[in-house]
Amino acid sequence: MSLAPRAVLVHRTTEYEELVARHGTHGQAAYFLRSRGRDIEEVAERHRRTRRALAEVSSAIPLTWRQTQVERADLDRFLFAPEDVVVVVGQDGLVANVAKYLAGQPVLGFDTDPGRNPGVLVRHRPSAAATLLPSAHAAGTGVDELTMVEAVADDTQRLVALNEIYLGAVGHQTARYRLGLEGDGGVVEAQASSGVLVGTGTGATGWLRSVWQERGSALSLPHPSEDRLVWFVREAWPSPVTGTSLVAGELAGSAVLQLTVESEQLIVFGDGMEGDALELTWGQTVRVGRAATALRLTG
User: Residue 88: CB partners within 8 Å, gap ≥ 6?
Assistant: First the structure.
């Protein structure tokens, strides 16, 4: 007998909740903002909209399903099951935050604040939940397969991201490493830079696009479901022992970018979640390319 689907509602602590937790009471938080020319009501109203959306989506879950909730800060400790339907209630970035922990489960995104969010990944209004949820568990029902990026270290550490993976030094120190494309005839360059960014078509609407635009790159950015990644070296520094010839490119299909650490420590993190990073030390190698799994986002 197969288990009934489980709806996993993913949400995050609101700005209002964070303010009250920091200052102790609503009144103290209001005073803090008022002293800086801000009105707490704006933040409180966004909190109320988020809570109303979460309640509306929760009440639309079919009665025969199981359901649970998980906060963004707890994602790395939550165990997703094969029969789960992942229901993200919040901003686009919350879909990227949960994507790395999934293995093919369908994802539905509900926008809690239309007009403030682009709605690229949280594509639906909470009022549509009752219609969308029952069909979300059916195989092949209006699902977009969004390409993801993966980093694998030589000690088997692995990291997956939906938007981009960043490789660099902790803080603002210079990252030192040797960079090359696997299978490219051994062409490798020693570099000192602000780090390397490898991103997907989904990430091409965010950090990756800002680097691409600032540089005036001639590379074409990929589409979210395209089997292609784009990478950039940030602020490569020329010196007698470091070069700047390998600073951008694309990884199509199974192509892999390989980086060997020549610093005391480099970190690798995905989708801005620096707290959940791989730590690499001198001499270690990491390979970055397209992930074998994709995010199954219900359209």
Answer: 10, 11, 94, 95, 98, 107, 108, 109, 110, 121, 122
